[in-house]
Amino acid sequence: MKKRNHITGNVYTRNEAGINVHEYGAHIFHTNNKEIWDYVNSFVEFNRYTNSSVARHGDDLYNLPFNMNAFYQL
């Protein structure tokens, strides 16, 4: 791994005209530990993100992982 010239390594973002740009690609941080969540948010506020994957088959979209909603669609 390449050493970066700034803190946060590959999670580095820069601000361009009020927009946070992820220098090295998008980043997702997740934990179910409130103490850790509060600690990292003391440095910067994280946006809430929920991964909602879908699969496309023809013109139809299905939830992944396969769930009752996808079963109902079939």
Number of strands: 4
The percent range for helix content is 10-25%
Structural class: alpha+beta
**Widest sheet: strand ordering:** 1-2
Encode the helix/strand succession as letters.
Answer: EEHEEH
- End-to-end C-alpha gap: 45 Å
User: Which residue ranges are poorly predicted, with pLDDT under 50 across at least 5 consecutive positions?
Assistant: none
The largest β sheet comes out as: 2 strands, antiparallel
Radius of gyration: 18 Å
User: Which geometry do the CA atoms define?
Assistant: elongated
Helix count from the secondary structure assignment: 2
Mean pLDDT: 82
Strand content: 15-25%
Question: How would you describe this protein?
Answer:
It is a single chain. By secondary structure, the chain is an alpha+beta fold. The strands form 2 sheets. The protein has a two-stranded antiparallel sheet. The protein has a two-stranded antiparallel sheet with strand order 3-4. Helices cover about 20% and strands about 20% of the residues. The protein is elongated. It starts with 12 loop residues before the first strand and ends with a helix. The protein is built from 2 helices and 4 strands, in the order ββαββα. The mean pLDDT is about 80.
